[in-house]
Design goal:
By secondary structure, the protein is an alpha+beta fold. It is 44% helix and 13% strand. Helix 1 crosses helix 3.
């Protein structure tokens, strides 16, 4: 079954949340290659960059160090709605 390109943002989120840290930066090209190879969805660096921007708008604290990579410092936490 072919996977939807709309899933890319979730794969970018997971890569940053589970595979990155202040001591382990991820390059956008590496994330794109992982998505293309393991998830079988065509993805490039520009797509990853755009999705990182969207995640930042969603209040994910993503730190980008130019030329070195990025990591997720914190992710949004929402309180339970009663």
């Amino acid at each position: 079954m072919k996977k939807s390109k709309k899933l890319i943002i979730l794969y970018v989120y997971d890569a940053l949340k589970y595979e990155s840290s202040e001591n382990c930066l991820l390059h956008q090209t590496k994330i794109a290659k992982q998505i293309s190879n393991y998830c079988e969805i065509s993805c490039d660096r520009k797509t990853v960059a755009r999705n990182i921007k969207y995640l930042s708008e969603y209040d994910c604290d993503i730190v980008t160090i130019k030329g070195k990579g990025c990591y997720m410092n914190s992710y949004p936490y929402f309180e339970k709605i009663d």
